[in-house]
Each structure stands twice: as structure tokens, then as C-alpha cells.
């Protein structure tokens, strides 16, 4: 079974080798037919402590690393320049 890959923004890097990533998903509400935004925070393993708050990253699911960490940072996404 393929591993899930999610994209989100780093909201916290205060812990050693751990970052908190805010992932947003959008979907159409089944009754209201309106686009709804839902967010969820994931804790991901960052071995080199290289990601900072505000970075856009991709995370991939992995075997449990600790009580709350089930994700690893895959890559950093380049910020879109306007």
C-alpha cells in the first residue's frame, strides 16, 4: 500500500528533531454544496533541524518514531513567487 504524502506549513520547530506541520484540505460539503476548509496538525521528524516556521514542506507517513510522531519530512517546497 502506498504511503500518503501531504503538503503543509511548518507552525512550530521548538522541539529537537520535530516540527509541527499544519495541513489544510478542501472539499465540497455534501449537503450545503459549499467548499469547506479543514486543517489538521501533524508532528513530523526533522533529523537535521533544518526547517523553520513558515516553510512549506511535504511529509510522508512512516513507522512510529515516538508517541505522537508518525510522519517524516520528505522535501521542502519552493515558495511560489508572485
Automatic annotation (TrEMBL):
The keyword Nucleotide-binding does not apply. One of its GO terms (biological process) is translation. CDD domains: Ribosomal_uS17. GO terms for cellular component: cytosolic small ribosomal subunit. Keywords: Ribonucleoprotein, Ribosomal protein, RNA-binding, rRNA-binding. One of its GO terms (molecular function) is rRNA binding. The keyword Ribonucleoprotein applies. Belongs to the universal ribosomal protein uS17 family. NCBIfam families: PRK05610.1, uS17_bact. Part of the 30S ribosomal subunit. One of the primary rRNA binding proteins, it binds specifically to the 5'-end of 16S ribosomal RNA. This is Small ribosomal subunit protein uS17. It comes from Amaricoccus macauensis. The gene is rpsQ.
Amino acid at each position: 500500500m502506498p504511503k500518503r504524502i501531504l503538503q503543509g506549513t511548518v507552525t512550530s520547530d521548538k522541539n529537537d528533531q520535530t516540527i509541527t506541520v499544519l495541513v489544510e484540505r478542501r472539499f465540497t460539503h455534501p449537503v450545503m454544496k459549499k467548499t469547506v476548509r479543514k486543517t489538521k496538525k501533524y508532528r513530523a521528524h526533522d533529523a537535521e533541524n533544518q526547517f523553520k516556521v513558515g516553510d512549506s514542506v511535504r511529509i510522508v507517513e512512516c513507522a512510529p518514531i515516538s508517541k505522537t510522531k508518525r510522519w517524516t519530512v520528505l522535501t521542502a517546497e519552493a515558495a511560489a513567487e508572485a
